[in-house]
Each structure stands twice: as C-alpha cells, then as structure tokens.
Amino acid sequence: MSVQERKERERAERERLIVATARELAEQQGWDAVTTRRLAERIEYSQPVLYSHFRGKREIIGAVALEGAAELAAAVRAAAAGASGPRERVTALARAYLDFAARNPAVYDAMFQLDGGLTFAKEDTPEPLKDAFAALLESLGDVAGDGVHPGVFTELFWASLHGLATLTRAERLPPTYAEERTELLVARLAVL
Amino acid sequence: MSVQERKERERAERERLIVATARELAEQQGWDAVTTRRLAERIEYSQPVLYSHFRGKREIIGAVALEGAAELAAAVRAAAAGASGPRERVTALARAYLDFAARNPAVYDAMFQLDGGLTFAKEDTPEPLKDAFAALLESLGDVAGDGVHPGVFTELFWASLHGLATLTRAERLPPTYAEERTELLVARLAVL
DNA sequence: CTCGATTGTCTAGCGGTGCTAGCATCGATT
DNA sequence: AATCGATGCTAGCACCGCTAGACAATCGAG
Questions:
Q1: What CATH number should be reported for the domain whose range is A58-189?
Q2: pLDDT tens-digit profile of A20-37?
Q3: Which residues belong to any copy of the HTH tetR-type domain (chains A, B) (predicted)?
Q4: Which CATH number fits domain B57-189: 1.10.357.10, 3.40.800.20, 3.30.1330.40, 3.40.47.40?
Q5: Tens of pLDDT, residues A131-166
Q6: Domain boundaries, chain A
Q7: Torsion-angle region of residue B105: left (phi > 0), alpha (psi -120 to 50) or beta?
C-alpha cells in the first residue's frame, strides 16, 4: 500500500501549499485579491482542484485562521514566559497580541473579521481556537481580581485588545499614543 | 425656477430612498445581499440611477455609516443625559453603545467593518464621525483619571466597547455574562 | 406652436467572481 | 498488456460592480 501512502502524502502537501499560498497572497495584496482563479494559477493547478480539498473559499479562509490561531497562541505564551512579574507578563502579552495583529493583518482578518465558517465558544470549536483563548487565560486568570470570574475577565481583556487591533489597523485610531493606550489598558484592567 | 427646485427636491428624496433602502436590505439580509441589482429593483429604478447619486457601492455604504454615526451620537448623549452620577453615566453610555451595535448590526458594520471610503481621525473626517467621538469624549473625559489624556482614554474605552460589540455579534463571545463584562469594563477602566 | 437641445432613464453588455458538470487522460491493478 | 477507476482539465453557469450608448421626455428659443 505504499503507492496509496505516497498519494496521500502528496495530497496533504498540496493542501498545505494551497493554504500557504492563500495566506501569502492575502498578506501581499489583501483578501480581495485572493480569488479562486489567482490562487489556482499560483499553485499551478486548475480551479476545481481547490474544491477537491476544500468545500469553498470560506474553508480556505478558515484553514488560514486555524494556522494563525496556533501561531498567536505560541506568540502569547512565548511573550508571557519571558517576563518576570505579573505586570510585565500582562504587558508583554498585550504587546505580543497587538504585534501579531499588526504583522499578520490578513491572518488576523481570517480569524476575526472574515467568515471562515468557524464556530467559537462552543463545544465543536476547533482545538487551535480554544487553545489560543487558553493561552490568554493562563496569564490573565491570575490578575482578574477577587470575585471576578477569570474566564469573563479574559474575555473582556481579549475584547479590548481586539478593539485596539482592529481600529488601529483600519485607521480608525491614530498610531500616535498607541503605546499609551496599551499601557493604560494593562494598568487599569489588570489587578496587579 | 420652481421647476428646478422641485427637481432638486425629488432628487434629494430619491437619494434618501436609496440610502434607506440599502440600510433596510442590509439589516434584513446582510450586506452581501445588498447588490446594485437588488437595490435598484427595490427602489424601482434601474442600476445606472444609483451611479448618478453615488460613485459606487462604497459610497452608499459610507452614506449609511454617516447616518448611523449621527444616531449613535444621539443615543450616547441621551443615555448620558438621563443618568445621575458619574458611574451611572458611564454605565449608561456603555450600555447604549453596545445596544446600538446589537440592534443595528448592519449599520454598525457599515461604520466600522466595511469599507465605506471614509477617513477617520484626520482633518477631512466627516462631521458626524467626529461628533460621535465627541459624544463619547463628553462623558468619558471626566473619568479618565489624573494625568491621563482624556482623548487617549476615550480612544481606549471606545476600542474596548468596539471589541465587545464585534466579538459578541460575530459569536466569538458567548452572550452569557455579557452584562458582567460591561460592568467590569466600567468599574476597571473609569476612575470614579 | 414647433423644433432643436438638453436632461434623464433604460437596455445591453463588459470583465470579473465563486463554483460545478462532464470529459479526457493518466497510471495502478489484474 | 489491457482495463478501469481516480484525477485534473476545459468550459460554462449565474451572479457581481460598473458603464457605454440608445432612447424618450422635457425644456427653451424662435
């Protein structure tokens, strides 16, 4: 059955190629430029091949989103691990989150702005998404304060970061004082 | 010149009809369903008529966004005016903001998620947008705390509200504990 | 009142989108 | 070596935003 195994490997490899190419194209020229025709051309296959891997464009976006969620979780954990006290840890976490959003705008869009057909905060939520939230919870749960549910606190902190990330990138917030806003967020929300 | 005046009135009236119909259609079936063909059919004119009023679909979205900004400003001011102390005022403001976003999802999207070709936080920012931010600033400036720039504080508070609004509506945050998150936000961010 | 000009609206169509039916070719199996 | 199923292709559907050009209605001048 070695032939079949090789085929499966090649198929999996091509699937990774599709996702990587979609991501690359989105980061270079925005998601609007990611059409099935262009994507097919870049991977040097015809359009229908995409549909033998994914149900449609939505699912491709969803795949990029899952990839991003894993990276975001790793970035957040790495930042938190390299900090000394609670305050430094939360600050590092916030910066890492906002930095990820700024450096990977297309991936961040795939996760939170576009419809990738993913379900959140449910039982059937994909593992990487749950894990990304868990990464935030690990560091933020400790600074929720007395009598405050750690999960609820993390949700609020996350929402604030998300608001800053999206409004900044959409040029709804001026880049000036971006650092002040981050520090103020940490100082006020977290109980240190 | 009464004839010309009548024509101008009719033209302005039709422009309002276009914006109102786009908004209605978007709230009913989402912005994806707002195509130039469907919109034209609903106002009982042909597609090109739309282009004699707006440069394109973007501008129609922008018009809905401006309408929404004016309403949001009014809603925020009304809520703030009806509250007694500082704490009640900020709580009422937050609730009014989130309530507006929840009740007018399509309009909120037009303002902050979609590209309506509007510029923010610049000199040539349309008046309704500046005024909506001003409405927030009026109530939030007082609770920024010592040594904190009221504008920067308002930007942060706004971003947090925006994050809660978008993540909740996109079902990224569970509806449970929505009220707790709001109260926690007010209690922590505002200096009362 | 008639007639040309202007204004306004429509029909038809362009190039693009996501997606799919059906055919042809290639390659593993017998 | 012949067969036959898997695989990727060409071609095309219905829809999108947008626009050129034909046509009709209205206006102003003689």
A1: 1.10.357.10
A2: 999 999 999 999 999 999
A3: 12-72
A4: 1.10.357.10
A5: 999 999 999 999 999 999 999 999 999 999 999 999
A6: 1-53, 58-189
A7: alpha
pTM for the structure as a whole: 0.95
Per-residue burial over A13-42, b = 16 or more CB atoms within 10 Å of its CB, e = otherwise: ebbeebbebbbebbbeeebeebebeebbee
- Cβ distance A140 to B169 under 8 Å? no
What kind of fold does domain B1-53 have according to CATH? Arc Repressor Mutant, subunit A (1.10.10)
Q: Is residue B109 a contact partner of residue B125, using CB atoms and an 8 Å limit?
A: no
How many angstroms separate the CA atoms of B128 and B160, rounded?
Answer: 21
Residue B146, chain A, CB below 8 Å: the answer is no
Residue of B103, B105, B175 lying closest to A121 (CA atoms): B175
B30 CA to C15 C1' distance (Å): 26
- The Cα of B185 is separated from the nearest Cα of chain A by a number of Å equal to 7
Q: Is A120 helix (H, G, I), strand (E, B) or coil?
A: coil
Which chain A residue shows the shortest CA-CA distance from B130? A172
Nearest-angstrom CA–CA distance, A71 and A78: 10
